[in-house]
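Quick one: structure tokens for this chain, please?
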Amino acid sequence: GSACVSQDEVEELRAEMEEVRDSYLEEEVYQLQELRRELDRANKNCRILQYRLRKAEQKSLRVAQTGHVDGELLRSLEQDLKVRTDCLNIIEYLTFNHQRCTDCGSLGRFQGLILTSL
């Protein structure tokens, strides 16, 4: 048994290593695209939330002026609270995933793309 490795074996190993690297990079890109989609959804939800909060502020001013609270206002405020909670959960999830990617360094070169979306 010779310890020498032929040039063909070296080329074959190099090709296998490149294939593994390529599939690893594809997975990284896929994960980044998923994070970006979730970030887009979170941004959209937050814009909706900001609009609803403005409406809620207008309603609360009306309540303060008239002293009258109706059921529709309460339902609307409950819905606003739910949207706000969903938004915060999504942002927390994205922050955690971004931190995890940065910690392991695998998506470090993409972090600028994520940060510029925030």
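The longest helix spans residues 7-66.
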